[in-house]
Specification:
single chain; mainly alpha
């Protein structure tokens, strides 16, 4: 498992919680399957496509660039 995928999982969960959204709510807002969102946030996450990243950013009501920057920032603090 590559580090960026794990950092994405942690960042996605953190952002979702900051927005006070359940997994079900975010999945609906992002128009993705709830079970897939669970996998993206899980211990063994899959790597999302660019299209899925865009849907998640829309569901979180943030720009796609902000989502990606959040993952990079999280990765940089985990690996100084």
């Amino acid at each position: 498992m590559d580090n960026i995928t794990l950092e994405f999982a942690k960042t996605l969960k953190r952002l979702r919680i900051e927005k006070n959204l359940t997994q079900e709510e975010l999945a609906e807002r992002a128009d993705i399957d709830y079970k897939y969102l669970q996998k993206l946030e899980g211990q063994n996450p899959s790597s999302p496509t660019l299209s899925t990243l865009e849907k998640l950013a829309n569901g979180l009501n943030i720009p796609l660039a902000e989502l990606i920057q959040s993952v990079q920032a999280n990765d940089n603090t985990a690996n100084p």
